[in-house]
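During the second half of the funding period, the structural biology subgroup turned its attention to how the target accommodates small molecules. The most pressing case was zinc ion, which had performed well in the primary screen but for which no bound structure existed. We therefore specified the complex as follows and requested a full 3D prediction, including the ligand pose.
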Amino acid sequence: MSVEQPVWCHKCHLRIAPYDLQTVFRSRAYHRNCLLRLVHQQAQESQPRRALQMEKRKQPLVRSIRKDKSARIKAENTPVD
Ligand SMILES: [Zn+2]
């Protein structure tokens, strides 16, 4: 006698077979891939501006590092009295 209860995925609404990778998130069951997609979607929908800001931040940071390097090279080449 089987005691297995059928489990349905909260994202795609298909039954999660016993051999499928099942993940429980916030007391809801998902296929592992469905949960990954869900989390990815939520992250994009809730923080599109933050993601853009992070993209923008990368460039000035690299530039300031380059400035520091060239400044240091100049300082090294400048004869000290
Ligand atoms: Zn699913």
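Two results from this model are relevant to the next phase. The CA atoms of residues 11 and 34 lie 6 Å apart. The pocket of zinc ion is lined by residues 9, 11-12, 14, 30-31, 34 (CB under 6 Å).
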